[in-house]
Amino acid sequence: MRRRLLGALAGAGAVCLVVGAPQLGRPTAASWKNSEFGQSSSFTAKFVHPPRSLSCTRSIVLERVTFTWQAPTTGGAARSGYAWAVTGQFTRSGTLAADATSVVINVPLLALGTANFTVWAVSDEASPQWQSTKLAGRIYVLTSLIPDCSVP
Fold first, then answer.
1. How far apart are CA 44 and CA 123, in angstroms?
2. Which residues of 92-124 are buried (b: 16+ CB within 10 A; e: fewer)?
3. pLDDT tens digits, one per residue of 78-116
4. What total number of domains does the chain contain?
5. CA–CA gap between residue 132 and residue 140 (Å, rounded)
6. 103 touches 95 (CB < 8 A)
7. 40 HSE (CA, 13 A, CB side)
8. pLDDT tens, residue by residue, 124-150
9. Residue 99, domain member (yes or no)
10. In degrees, to the nearest 5, what angle opens at C-alpha 51 toward C-alphas 49 and 55?
11. Beta carbons of 151 and 140 less than 8 angstroms apart
12. Which end of the chain is more exposed for a tag (fewer CB within 10 A), N or C?
């Protein structure tokens, strides 16, 4: 009985080995090759510190939302100002001076839904204009007379 069991296990093992062996050394089609080359031998990267501590408040009467932030820490590339954008249910965008710490977003009368707000610092260099990472918030409009906002 014991010999039969060992024989059956050995036979099953041999079948698995014969069926699985061709699969072991098979190359895959997955590969990656980076064939990009630079135009020059120099590389420049700069860091623009992002604004900090984004918060928002809503005005109940005037159909607007105000986003406020703190200026970035010193260091990195010189900051020329901020850029901001609203996308989603309605769109707005603009730029602000380097000493700005808030922007007022007027909500359109017929807007209903959600819009995304982002603000980021930009450098004073023209080409390329370096940008910081973005801070994000949301504008909620259930009725245009009473918008609401949040910051994650």
1. 14
2. beeebeeebeebebebeeebeeebebbbbbbbe
3. 788 999 999 998 999 999 998 999 999 988 877 788 999
4. 1
5. 26
6. no
7. 3
8. 776 677 888 899 999 988 765 678 889
9. yes
10. 160
11. no
12. N
